[in-house]
Amino acid sequence: MKIQGKMFMWLSVFILVMAIVYGWWSKEPAGTTALFLAFGLAIMIGFYLGFTAKRVDVGAQDDKEADVADDAGEIGFFSPHSWQPLFLAVGGAFAFLAVAVGWWLMYFSAPLMLIALWGWVFEYYRGENRTQ
User: Fold this and answer.
1) Are 3 and 62 in contact (CB under 8 A)?
2) Which contacts (CB < 8 Å, 24+ apart) does range 32-37 have?
3) Which 8-state DSSP code applies to residue 15?
4) How close are the terminal C-alpha atoms of the chain, in Å?
5) pLDDT in tens, 56-106
6) What is the pLDDT, as a whole number, of residue 45?
7) pTM value?
8) Which of 78, 9, 6 is nearest to 41 (CA)?
9) Are 36 and 19 in contact (CB under 8 A)?
């Protein structure tokens, strides 16, 4: 993870330089703001990856003598049968539709999104999936 953190830090430096050059050259506020926000996102990701790289074991991508097979195996746990993302997407679609149709639709989409998000976060703390 150390190399990914360095890559994002260098990417954030590049985006910052480009944001300054673009803002000075074009005098256009929307694109300049978007580039500065992209800089912020890249530096947050780079800081997070660098911060967590100190606390986890060294991965195969950080070892110059590693083979491809050294990084094989289980990566993590992925939920095989969750319906919560579907309901969250439906609620998000209704929320975006509320911008076009009317804000009254947000009264239906916000509770749907909150319930789906709550169910997704606590999916493995209750019911039949509690022991996984």
Assistant:
1) yes
2) none
3) H
4) 27
5) 777 777 777 888 787 777 766 777 788 899 999 999 999 999 999 999 999
6) 96
7) 0.56
8) 9
9) yes
Q: b/e string for 107-130 if b means 16 or more Cβ within 10 A?
A: eebeebbeebeeebeebeeeeeee
Residue count (the chain): 132
Q: What is the pLDDT of residues 23-56, one digit of tens each?
A: 999 999 999 999 999 999 999 999 999 998 888 7
- Between CA 49 and CA 2 the distance in angstroms is 7
Kindly state the tokens that stand for 55. Answer: 């606390």
What is the spatial distance between Cα 16 and Cα 41, in angstroms, rounded to a whole number?
A: 11
Residue 130 tokens read as 């509690």
DSSP letter at 63?
-
Tell whether the model's pLDDT for residue 132 goes beyond 70. no
If you search the block for the tokens 């749907």, which residue do you land on? 112
What Å distances lie between residue 93 and 100, 105, 106, 107, 112, CA to CA? 11, 11, 10, 13, 11
Rounded distance, CA 112 to CA 129, Å? 22
